Amino acid sequence: MSSNKLRILVPIKRVLDYQLKPRINKTNDGIITTGVKFSINPFCDIAVEEAVRIREKNADLVDTVHAVSIGPLKSQDILRSSMAKGIDSSTLIETSEKDRELEPLIIAKILKKIVEKNNSNLIILGKQSIDDDSNQTGQMLAGLLNWPQATNAAKVELNPSDNSINITREIDGGEDIVNAKLPLIITTDLRLNEPRFATLPNIMKAKKKPLEKLKVGELGINLENKLKILKIEEPVQKQPGIKVSSVDELIEKLQEKKLL
Amino acid sequence: MFSRACQRLLLPRYLVQNSSKVLLSSKKALPVYTKNFTKFSNYRFYSSKGDVKLTSEVYPSLKRFEHFKRLTSDDIVHFKQVLDNDDNLVLTADLDFFNEDHLRKYKGQSSLVLKPKTTEQVSKILKYCNENSLPVVPQSGNTGLVGGSNPVFDEIVLSLANLNKIRSFDNVSGILKADAGVILENADAFLAENGFIFPLDLGAKGSCFIGGNVATNAGGLRLLRYGSLHGSVLGLEVVLPDGTVLNSLNSLRKDNTGFDLKQLFIGSEGTLGIITGVSVLCPTRPKAVNVAFLGVESYEAVQKAFTESKNYLSEILSAFEFMDLNSQKLSKEFLKQKSHPLDEEHPFYILIETSGSNKDHDDVKLESFLEYAMENEIVSDGVVAQDETQLKTLWNWRESVSEASTIYGGVYKYDVSIPIQDLYRLVEDVKVRLSDFNLIGETEEFPVKDAIGYGHIGDGNLHLNVAVRRYSKEVESCLEPFVYEWIKKHNGSISAEHGLGFQKKNYIGYSKSDIEINLMKQLKKLYDPKLILNPYKYINFDK
């Protein structure tokens, strides 16, 4: 076992396409998912791109690059697409269409199993998904595995000399550069890279790459969510402002609203 | 169809790509048009050499019709009254936006712009103008490409911008009734909310109005799938030159009771009447849209790909566009992108779009077409959009070509219909001719930067753009009538979709017979005996 080489795992999620406006369902506890386009979560796309780039720049340091997705059968589309970009192989952990979406903690527990199964030592995943915006999975996974984590990565550089990685993180004040040895979890932020297009020849080749399918119930993990969504509602519409025609009118209106 | 609910890809604002000073003027902010931040709004893309020359100076042989009255202050008082004495509706200063076309090739000398809010006001204005022999130029989004919506002399500009309400929509039949001044993109966004789509799409969608689209019978990117406006427009509300309001907005899919008068106005370019309301039959919005962007090695391969795509994709094919290599080079410069979707350069590129009701079925069809095309070496390389963002990006490489052609200073545009086999040869022949005349080159001394070809090959429609550093008579006389004669020889149309406007009014003879032209003149004189509506355009009545 080449334990010094990178065995990269890229968890990816299928979400409502970023460009579409989500619509709330009739029972106010979720969004409408029928008849709308689903695509790879943008941050996950960035993770795929980063993993592929690491392999392209350091071919001799990377053993395998594997993607995994937990979701309905249709998630295989994003796995195929990722393999067309350079991922070697992938796993689909199929959930039932009727299942309520699994919480980050459960996802993290499932991923832990996959990490152990594949003996991965570098996990690159999106910092959050655009449907629930939780920003928790990567961190929880690090906790469960007791691995270091570098979140909101804007730049990733390998240090082969001491088997460590430098990660530049986005923080409120600017940037935070951390260094960690493997095994390691990195979550991606927007500035990290710009995902490529999947080209036709590679799309054809990707059809032959391995895509294993497992059922989520077979993993021996308790899938009960600890959180219950009570209600989803649209944010309050911003009311239009009014135009005033003079400074005097402005003062008058401000006084009316008791703002002056 | 990509969602309109989100902001369009915001393109960076452009600085002129040449040695002269950067001219980005925010002085010319346009209050009404900033609602839709689009490629054409807010900033004007400036020709490198400062101000636009007056059309009347560039074409000195053109004479103002003598029977037209000159505007007096009494006339302005009258118009103010008609328009409720609202100063926002009667403009007499800062009229460059209305006087200039957006290619900055033509400039009029109007001193009055009227912006009525209702059809009745339009009617009153025209009635008065007709009685007083005052010429009027109807203006929609001012995105036309043949100078058809700008004054030549002192014609009054009548802008439709304030007639911008959607009147009604029936979501069983899909019939939309709206004011002429509704922006195309807004109409489509409204329809998107209801699960329908506007049967027309084109690059200027964020600025053009549907009234102007109908008046010019705009073709656009999806004519291949949804047909022409002659088919999808069910009714019109038109104000005739004498002020009569012709209302045929009854929205019936089938109505064989008499001459189909609306067909006269569709494509009449504002010379027979002013369209104030439109009734359009809208198709249901496709649930699944795919875009593939392909690289091919020859024009023959483009044609082969087109034939095969019709075989494999048939009813789901919704757009088939082609571009040559140099058009993509210009786009790359214009969009300031470091890389193109395809890594290597190819002589030609194709954009294929499919739209259907079932993603899984469409994916299978597209896949089998692409596999066939790759295996049989019709296509060398390509990418397929994985999500809406990539879809927009790929379309942008095609849609940006038009504006990219202007980045060196200006462009001569030729929008022509030619039998598909001969289509690209026009571009090659024009390049040779420009070279023979020593007008084309990489350095500043040459007025022409490049001649590129792209367009709706599915419709047999080529856009030949001659990208120039400056407009000049030399270049114009080299290109015209050469291009038009070439077209005539190949039995094509000198204006597939852009129309005649000002630029091509003298060339209609290359595509229409004298008999046809005479009948058109008869109709024009019948509806507009004083020739007040959009004079000096479309058909030549110059003495």
Automatic annotation (TrEMBL), chain A:
<dbReference type="GO" id="GO:0005759">
    <property type="term" value="C:mitochondrial matrix"/>
</dbReference>
<comment type="subunit">
    <text>Heterodimer of an alpha and a beta subunit.</text>
</comment>
<comment type="function">
    <text>The electron transfer flavoprotein serves as a specific electron acceptor for several dehydrogenases, including five acyl-CoA dehydrogenases, glutaryl-CoA and sarcosine dehydrogenase. It transfers the electrons to the main mitochondrial respiratory chain via ETF-ubiquinone oxidoreductase (ETF dehydrogenase).</text>
</comment>
<keyword id="KW-0813">Transport</keyword>
<dbReference type="InterPro" id="IPR033948">
    <property type="entry name" value="ETF_beta_N"/>
</dbReference>
<dbReference type="InterPro" id="IPR014729">
    <property type="entry name" value="Rossmann-like_a/b/a_fold"/>
</dbReference>
<feature type="domain" description="Electron transfer flavoprotein alpha/beta-subunit N-terminal">
    <location>
        <begin position="28"/>
        <end position="223"/>
    </location>
</feature>
<keyword id="KW-0249">Electron transport</keyword>
<dbReference type="GO" id="GO:0009063">
    <property type="term" value="P:amino acid catabolic process"/>
</dbReference>
<dbReference type="InterPro" id="IPR012255">
    <property type="entry name" value="ETF_b"/>
</dbReference>
<dbReference type="InterPro" id="IPR014730">
    <property type="entry name" value="ETF_a/b_N"/>
</dbReference>
<dbReference type="GO" id="GO:0009055">
    <property type="term" value="F:electron transfer activity"/>
</dbReference>
<keyword id="KW-0496">Mitochondrion</keyword>
<comment type="similarity">
    <text>Belongs to the ETF beta-subunit/FixA family.</text>
</comment>
<protein>
    <recommendedName>
        <fullName>Probable electron transfer flavoprotein subunit beta</fullName>
    </recommendedName>
</protein>
<dbReference type="Pfam" id="PF01012">
    <property type="entry name" value="ETF"/>
</dbReference>
<dbReference type="GO" id="GO:0033539">
    <property type="term" value="P:fatty acid beta-oxidation using acyl-CoA dehydrogenase"/>
</dbReference>
TrEMBL record, chain B:
<keyword id="KW-0285">Flavoprotein</keyword>
<comment type="similarity">
    <text>Belongs to the FAD-binding oxidoreductase/transferase type 4 family.</text>
</comment>
<dbReference type="InterPro" id="IPR016166">
    <property type="entry name" value="FAD-bd_PCMH"/>
</dbReference>
<dbReference type="GO" id="GO:0071949">
    <property type="term" value="F:FAD binding"/>
</dbReference>
<dbReference type="InterPro" id="IPR016164">
    <property type="entry name" value="FAD-linked_Oxase-like_C"/>
</dbReference>
<dbReference type="Pfam" id="PF01565">
    <property type="entry name" value="FAD_binding_4"/>
</dbReference>
<dbReference type="InterPro" id="IPR004113">
    <property type="entry name" value="FAD-bd_oxidored_4_C"/>
</dbReference>
<dbReference type="InterPro" id="IPR016171">
    <property type="entry name" value="Vanillyl_alc_oxidase_C-sub2"/>
</dbReference>
<dbReference type="GO" id="GO:0004458">
    <property type="term" value="F:D-lactate dehydrogenase (cytochrome) activity"/>
</dbReference>
<keyword id="KW-0274">FAD</keyword>
<dbReference type="Pfam" id="PF02913">
    <property type="entry name" value="FAD-oxidase_C"/>
</dbReference>
<dbReference type="InterPro" id="IPR051264">
    <property type="entry name" value="FAD-oxidored/transferase_4"/>
</dbReference>
<dbReference type="GO" id="GO:0005739">
    <property type="term" value="C:mitochondrion"/>
</dbReference>
<dbReference type="InterPro" id="IPR006094">
    <property type="entry name" value="Oxid_FAD_bind_N"/>
</dbReference>
<dbReference type="InterPro" id="IPR016169">
    <property type="entry name" value="FAD-bd_PCMH_sub2"/>
</dbReference>
<dbReference type="InterPro" id="IPR016167">
    <property type="entry name" value="FAD-bd_PCMH_sub1"/>
</dbReference>
<dbReference type="GO" id="GO:0006089">
    <property type="term" value="P:lactate metabolic process"/>
</dbReference>
<dbReference type="InterPro" id="IPR036318">
    <property type="entry name" value="FAD-bd_PCMH-like_sf"/>
</dbReference>
<feature type="domain" description="FAD-binding PCMH-type">
    <location>
        <begin position="106"/>
        <end position="285"/>
    </location>
</feature>
<protein>
    <recommendedName>
        <fullName>D-lactate ferricytochrome C oxidoreductase</fullName>
    </recommendedName>
</protein>
<keyword id="KW-0560">Oxidoreductase</keyword>
